[in-house]
Amino acid sequence: MADLPARESMEFDVVIVGAGPAGLAAAIRLKQDAAEKGAEVSVVVVEKGSEVGAHILSGAVIDPSGLDALLPEWRDDPDRPLKTEVTADEFMYLGHAGGIRLPNVFMPKLMNNHGNFVGSLGNVARYLGRKAEELGVEIYPGFPAAEVLVEDGRVVGVATGDMGIGRNGEPNANFTRGMELRAKYTIFAEGARGSLTKQMVDRYGLNQGRDHQKYGLGIKELWQVKPDKFQPGLVRHSMGWPLPNNAGGGSWLYHFDDHLVSVGFVVHLNYKNPTLSPFEEFQRFKTHPMVRDVFEGAKRIGYGARAIMEGGWQSVPRLSFPGGCLVGDSAGFVNVPRIKGSHNAVLSGMLCADHVFDALQAGRAHDEVSSYEEAWRASPIGYDLKRVRNVKPLWSRYGTMAGVALGGLDMWMTEIFGRSPFGTMKHGKPDHESLLPLSQVKLIKYDRPDGVLTFDRLSSVFLSNTNHEEDQPVHLQVKDMGLQKASEHDVYGGPSQRYCPAGVYEWIEGEGGARYQINAQNCVHCKTCDIKDPNQNINWVTPEGGGGPNYVNM
Fold it and tell me: CA angle, corner 281, sides to 279 and 287, nearest 5?
């Protein structure tokens, strides 16, 4: 690349990367702490989406405990983002042609959704963004943080990405240099598998002494259903069909707001068969006789996908390092059996903010806020995660039927006796090592979509409002294309074209052999490729500012 001009810089007390629930909660809390102490704290939030909430995707049944702690008056706000309370809570185990409802009385109390809300987590983020700006927080959407600024081994801020770089890697006529946002402390709230968070984990060895992180892929559609099919506040979860017993996952079906139904499917990314397609499994799920009736005469209006951190208690990395901290799903605070993490995201943002504010008040800068790391396991976040720490390992080790039963037993024993008979189990190998060679599995075949209930990837991506500037470097970086052909294609049969829920990857067979095509403009930023590639040969980095999905009510 040609020599570039120096970047301009701005100074703040705190820079926050990511305008999700965790990042915005941290920003709000910092301003609340400052107001309480009569102090001044400058806070800026940078967000890669075109607007706050554009990249936020979740089911979502939301535990309001985080919002209650952060903004106690939110329920009385006419602008509040959550209005549908849970009215019915159902758990199903599905077979091919039928299923059974699991009695709620047998479910551990922590699985009860009474008092929770159904809604859009993206709209919660938009609400928090407005509240943050009212307090004086600066928020810059459309400016992805592309580089961590490190001096003398300490994080001193971030730089936003350059704009107007052509596909050839050279500046074009629209070139604009990125900005340096320098801070005394930098909080990383990028969500699952954040590109900068990965670098911090490696640079500072934040995962030393921790178990492997585990992941799932969540795929979601939003439907407008007929009035006679709508049950406001109904929450239904299922396990079993269409996934085989040795591939973990499950579904959700939530009724909320104005005849909206959120339907989604999670596949744990430690599955073994490289011909399994999470997207196609989701489409199959909707055809089940106990599910499809809801969508009769309905209209599909939204689609999206994202990775979910599933490692929990034993996989949370060290949260503090010189000049920086991790919060929310960057840290992995999802409670897997509850399928909830936004409450912990908000609580972690608040907890981090309190400790960072204390450090600022003491005149500190760029050092490690180790008190935050020391505090979280004894906080409500730690309590929430520790009591479910063995559910995911049991599910992975024993399959869906036995694993879920043992996980339920473990949660009951922890609830009643305060301890688990299993201790703290290990997760085993990382997800990218779980695939078997194509020669060792049975090919899974999927039906063609009907365009009414089941759909293809491209029509789905259209509903996500995904857009990227085409004349820019591909943000899905294949480190060694020869290895991709020799291993990902020749050994594993090209699983990237199956696990990607957006049709980004294709192996195109021709006279000269197979050619790898990357349709980067389709990318919905789920990060699955960065997680599941068997050789860790794909690196996801931030594209040009504002690119990606633009989710509405998701």
Answer: 115
